[in-house]
Write a structure and sequence with these properties.
Aminopeptidase; 10 helices; 30% helix; binds zinc ion
Length: 410
Amino acid sequence: MDLKNIIYKRFERYVKIDTQSDEASRTFPSTKKQLVLLKLLAAELKAIGARNVKLDKYGYVTGEVPATTKEKKPVIAFLAHVDTSPAASGKNVRPQLHKRWKGGDIHISRRHGIILNKKNCPELAGCAGDDIITASGDTLLGADDKAGLAIIMSAAEYLLAHKEIPHGLLKIGFTPDEEVGQGVKYFNVKTFKADCAYTFDGDVAGAIEDENFNAAGVKITIEGKSVHPGTAKNAMANAARIAADIVASWPENLLPETTEGREGFIMFTDISGETEKAEIAGIAREHDPKKLKAMERQLEAIVAAKRLKYPLARIEVSFREQYRNMKEVIDRRPDVMGKLMSAVRAAGLEPHVKPVRGGTDGARLSFMGLPTPNVFTGGYNYHGRYEWVSLDGMNKSAEVLVNLAREWAK
Ligand SMILES: [Zn+2]
């Protein structure tokens, strides 16, 4: 199956549309410009012959590829998001196609000296001989997740043109605002009526993800006691300094900058304060819910010690659940990952199951009743100017989608 040309043409068209989402916005979608691409995708779905194409009031685009089998099969859905990360500009993206990469330096921008190679990105190593797409040094590329859009659209078009491939009813969904954590906030799982779904929003070819962090927000408030510094001995509690002391007491091996893989962390994201009052905000992340709780206890113990050290201050710590690891939901439906593994193998790749070090729309969907693991799109270095995607990896991803459709009809 070679859809490289049509995938590239679509991808090129999609990345040129600026769809950056905005954390501070109170509207949904968070930015109007996302609707430009969502409308285009709805029109394109209709043009390729998808059924029941809808763009609803929230901006969600849904459509269907009708079943080709007579017997009823499970309904499978494929999802991708249109927005790009607020972390880097997505305006005037100029994609470059580096054909048949031989393994040397890829010059993203000679002007800015932005070079991509195996040294600064070992994940490239598996892509020798591939066509690599990058931006041009001023913006992110937007493969996260326009690669997913191009893959799903092109595979759907292929399936609509090849009715001899046996599959059940397939659903497609394109969503806004994944990067600001709100992607499926209003997504109606009940009316969507799928048995399981796959987000095409992963990274290098072969990688699949059924696990994400358990996440909690951390808040520490410190009430100090202000006294003239000249007479402060044994009478002052400086809330700002106590905040600094707490943050400095957290072990250095439990920070985002010192952990990887399955290792959890607490990151202190905001500290504000003065003598009378200080506040620390942070995030706690762990794949294992028990270890997350243990980490929370560990921070509470540090706070308890500071209460003894600073009896004149009042220190409170609290945690708030943000999202949970989807693995517990997906594990209850072993066929969801089982079929995916078979589909990846049928595309000639060895599946590499790994945990997401973050949250995914699929996590939220899983807890809404729709088990949704994540599938690779062939890219890496997302959210910045070093972002790249392998066109061959995208083609493999589209092949996995077609194989999934087949697998679920078996
Ligand atoms: Zn994404």
